[in-house]
Amino acid sequence: MSDVCAATPYDALLLLSFGGPEGPEDVVPFLENVTRGRGIPRERLEEVGEHYFRFGGVSPINAQNQRLLDALREDFAAAGLDLPVYWGNRNWAPYLTDTLRQLSRDGRRRVLVLVTSAYASYSGCRQYRENLAEALATLEREGLEPPAVDKLRHYFNHPGFVEPMVEGVLSALAELPVARRDGAHLAFSTHSIPLAAAEASGPLGGAYVAQHEEAAGLVADAVAEATGVPDRPWRLVYQSRSGPPQVPWLEPDICDHLESVHEAGAPAVVVAPIGFVSDHMEVLYDLDTEARQKAEELRLPFVRSATVGADARFVAAIRELILERAASERGGCPRRRALGASGPSHDRCPVGCCAARESAPAAAGADSPYA
Ligand SMILES: CC1=C(CCC(=O)O)c2cc3nc(cc4[nH]c(cc5[nH]c(cc1n2)c(C)c5CCC(=O)O)c(CCC(=O)O)c4C)C(CCC(=O)O)=C3C
Ligand SMILES: [Fe+2]
């Protein structure tokens, strides 16, 4: 199905991500970028720096994004979708501001933004919108025409995100000895955030946990159906907590949960990184290194399931979401696929969505200072 004006009014897609260091000399400046003004204790920073140094100072995230870009370009070409794809990051090169300058110089007037987080939260949604507003303001100061930006809706409940996760959990279960498979518990893991940020997430609050519960439940249901094990225990758990200890963050922590699973007599556990789009450092260190070691201490068989990465179904879902948004911007009524009860998420974040303590201007939402 080829349609040359399918993405109209958009003339570019921007992949907006976190960014990561490319070598040991990048680690400290990267961490300074990430934590500027965020009140992370010095000891936590040193500890996280060590995670990166263990992997040669190289975060996997940039290569993962490069793979996703390649897959998107291939998929668009095969589908006859003529939409150039750009890439910019919050914390490392290619920096968002440089990419927006390029978009402006290339004459792109209306850009759709794909963020590498599937859920509503300050860190995963609003902070990116603030980064966009800041970068657009920089372009204006420099006398460059800033493109209009819109952000794709959250995709945590899109079949193209859920289905690869289901397949990943089924493959992980298949790696366990047959005798332990049917009794294995599932732990769906995501990034912990401060309780206050969780409460403020989404248009009405509480969206971060609610969306994760929905996605995890969808995966658990599909796994139950495929394995014929209807009552397998599962739980949403949290990892990668930072910030000062007196500030409450979402719990239980994955490692504490592994203890509970062990005490409950589980024969094995499959950990599904539902909160992450690809194998970030949080997956390689906090799950594959730290949580795995905890499971080994407990003699609890442990398999970590795959992230969606550049899975063809996920890539096709992104294309579908682009065409959907373009059609609705043209005044149409496209099909908006979403699994489960909560329905498709909003296209445009309303005023106050994922509000932070100190409010900064945010683009790509109803309260954007840019059209
Ligand atoms: C919700 C969420 C996502 C998922 C959504 C999304 O994907 O955006 C995410 C992703 C990521 N977080 C990452 C790295 C870090 N996050 C940190 C700190 C923090 N993350 C937070 C939340 C999240 N983070 C929060 C509330 C903090 C506290 C400081 C603050 O309020 O800002 C710190 C500082 C040290 C530390 O405290 O851990 C680092 C180094 C990387 C790159 C990994 C790689 O290199 O592969 C990625 C993809
Ligand atoms: Fe939001």
From TrEMBL:
Subcellular location as annotated: Cytoplasm
GO molecular function (one): metal ion binding
Keywords, sorted A to Z: Cytoplasm, Heme biosynthesis, Iron, Lyase, Metal-binding, Porphyrin biosynthesis
Catalytic activity annotation: Fe-coproporphyrin III + 2 H(+) = coproporphyrin III + Fe(2+)
EC number: 4.99.1.9
Species in which this protein is naturally found: Streptomyces oceani
The protein, known as: Coproporphyrin III ferrochelatase
Main location: cytoplasm
Gene Ontology CC, one term: cytoplasm
Residues that, per the record, bind Fe-coproporphyrin III: S59, Y128
Pathway recorded for this protein: Porphyrin-containing compound metabolism; protoheme biosynthesis
Positions annotated to bind Fe(2+): H191, E282
GO biological process, one term: heme biosynthetic process
PANTHER family: FERROCHELATASE, FERROCHELATASE, MITOCHONDRIAL
Catalytic EC class: lyase
Role played: Involved in coproporphyrin-dependent heme b biosynthesis. Catalyzes the insertion of ferrous iron into coproporphyrin III to form Fe-coproporphyrin III.
Primary gene name: cpfC
InterPro entries (alphabetical): Ferrochelatase, Ferrochelatase_C, Ferrochelatase_N
Pfam families: Ferrochelatase
Family: Belongs to the ferrochelatase family.
Top-rank taxon: Bacteria
